[in-house]
Amino acid sequence: MPPTVIDLRRADDARDVIHRAVQALAEGWCVGFPTENDYVVAGCLRHPEAVARLLGWARPAATAPLLTLALRGADEAPDWAPGIGPVGQRLLRRCWPGPVAALVPSDHPDSLVHHIPAPARDAIGGAMLRLRCPGHPLLAECMRMLAGPVGIAEAAAGEALAVQAADLLAVGAPGMALLLDDGPTRYAQPPTTVAIAADGIRVVRGGIVAEETIHRLSSLMVLFVCTGNTCRSPMAEALFRSMLAERLACRPDEVESRGVVVASAGLSAWGGGKASVGAVDAMAEAGADLSAHESQPVTENLVRQADVILTMTAAHRAAILAQFPDAAGRVSMLSPDRQDVLDPIGGPLTTYRRCAEQIRGHLAARIDTLVAALPRP
Questions:
Q1: In this predicted model, which residue has the larger pLDDT, 171 or 297?
Q2: What number of CA atoms fall less than 13 Å from residue 2's CA on the CB side?
């Protein structure tokens, strides 16, 4: 019996569509969903009959499990792959929801894969798990309302993607109760598949996200924060980049290619402001160039992207946490001893020099830990 096709572009009430999809999944049926890349067939893995129906849609591939595990967000990945490591975690935090799939080891003793029924475990497992967090909101909303993990069947490497709902209908496999049609997919290209291990990442199947972008997104991002982003935080940014370049035996402008992005921002900054004259002169004496610096404000996107946020004062840290409490585990004062960094604004060059030396000392105390968090070559 063919599935019921619902055109999302003409649906009167999206909530009704979601409830119908959730009910079908909860009863062990499969549902066809759009993603930004392709149309996939989803089923609830706690139902053996749903797993059997999904396997009717699966296209075996030598390098991946039969079914992909769909997740709601990057924070769920360590539950299934506890050994994923910091490099993989920050890559997924920046890419998900979105067009990147992750292959992760499935053998960790604390993985949730050991707590799902055997048919589902065999279908999604093996040596590796394949994880996706599609960017289309419909599947995520259904998973939010559904008890139990969701598996999806998608095109294997080398096969044509289902970029329209009709492409799933053409396959003709049974067991799909609903097909949600949202028109042609946004990209019509496969998601980029990345193998993630504890010590690094490797692109194993090219897709919409370029390999260069994947490696940039897996970089360690260190963000320095002060008030106006014209004195202390740009000085910290410049000094850290120089110290890091010395550690990595490269030029300061090559640091990003070695796996670390260094930035600065201000809680009360206006975009595009110049560094203060004293900061420029003090950094010139230290061999760093701040003449091209442009200030930027602290934004939600910057805070979300940063792996380490180092503030110049306790008040700066408190202000960030008040606005972005989810960043608590990533925000610290620059000083390991929690001493405020001297504010040199309006002072003579000697004050800027003292500030620079104070920053340099705090960075020296932290640099070993920061270098240890870099991706391995």
A1: 297
A2: 10
Residue 343 appears among annotated catalytic residues: yes
Residue 377 inside a domain? The answer is no
**Structural contact between residues 62 and 137, judged by C-beta atoms closer than 8 angstroms:** no
Catalytically annotated residue among 258, 343, 354, 360: 343
Do 264 and 342 reside in the same domain of the chain? yes
The reply to whether 355 belongs to the active site is: no
Token reading at 166:
């009709």
366 and 245 in a common domain? yes
Residue 351: partners with Cβ closer than 8 Å, 6 or more residues away = 278, 342, 344
Q: Provide the 10 A C-beta neighbour count for residue 103.
A: 24
Instruction: Judge whether residue 110 has pLDDT over 70.
Output: yes
Write out the E strands in the chain: 4-7, 30-34, 39-44, 68-70, 100-105, 128-132, 150-153, 176-181, 192-197, 200-205, 220-226, 260-266, 308-311, 331-333
Calpha distance 46→26 (Å, rounded): 9
- Is the residue at 274 inside a domain? yes
pLDDT score for 377: 56
Other Cβ atoms less than 10 A from the Cβ of 40: the count is 26
The proportion of the chain whose per-residue pLDDT surpasses 90, expressed as a percent, equals 78
232 labelled catalytic:
yes
**Catalytic residue (one of 90, 130, 205, 232):** 232
The DSSP bridge partners found for residue 129 are 104
**DSSP one-letter string for 30-67:** EEEEE-SS-EEEEEETT-HHHHHHHHTT---BTTB-SS
Global confidence as pTM:
0.81
Asked whether residue 156 carries a pLDDT value surpassing 80, the answer given is no
Residue 63 has what pLDDT? Answer: 52
CATH of the domain at 240: 3.40.50.2300
Same domain, 10 and 150: yes
Q: Are 247 and 337 in contact (CB under 8 A)?
A: no
Domain shared by 92 and 66, yes or no: yes
The residue range of the domain holding 12 is: 4-211
pLDDT of residue 375: 64
**Distance, first Cα to last Cα, the chain:** 53
Residues 173 and 92 in one domain: yes
Q: Does 253 share its domain with 368?
A: yes
Q: Which of 95, 133, 142, 226 is catalytic?
A: 226
